[in-house]
Write a structure and sequence with these properties.
- The protein is mostly beta strands.
- The strands form two sheets. Strands 2, 4, 5, 6, 9, 10 and 11 form a seven-stranded mixed sheet that branches. Strands 1-3-8-7 form a four-stranded antiparallel sheet, with no helix packed on it.
- The termini are far apart.
Length: about 120
């Protein structure tokens, strides 16, 4: 069983930055594909970014490309989401997810484990 704990959410002004972290326990991160998803009030959960096991392949939704960056520290068993140039539309609960071999990186239910979520609020 893998436990995921997200940290780093909070409030930022538009144009600001936040860094989310997701600490995994129970299994080495080197065996897991990691993803970040978000859900805004009244909207469906959406894919944000993903990193395959070695970190050599990353994927982002179009609206965050160039602003967000996913990285991983397999030694610390932690994955990060650096969010720059934040916009009010980035406001959401952000979820970390981990999967041994998710069929599709952008599908939340394809991941085996999920965190509890952390709130990110961006004001204009």
């Amino acid at each position: 069983q893998v436990q995921l704990v997200e940290l780093g959410g909070g409030w930022a002004q538009a144009g600001g930055s936040l860094r989310l972290s997701c600490a995994a326990s129970g299994r080495s991160l080197s065996w897991l594909t990691m993803g970040w998803f978000r859900q805004a009030p009244g909207k469906e959960r959406e894919f944000v970014a993903a990193s395959t096991r070695s970190g050599s392949i990353t994927s982002y939704r179009d609206s965050v490309k160039g602003r967000f960056s996913i990285s991983r520290d397999n030694f610390r068993n932690t994955v990060y989401l650096q969010m720059n140039s934040l916009k009010p539309e980035d406001t959401a609960v952000y979820y970390c997810a981990a999967g041994v071999a998710p069929t599709t990186l952008g599908v939340f239910s394809d991941y085996d484990y999920r965190g509890q979520g952390t709130q990110v609020t961006v004001s204009s």
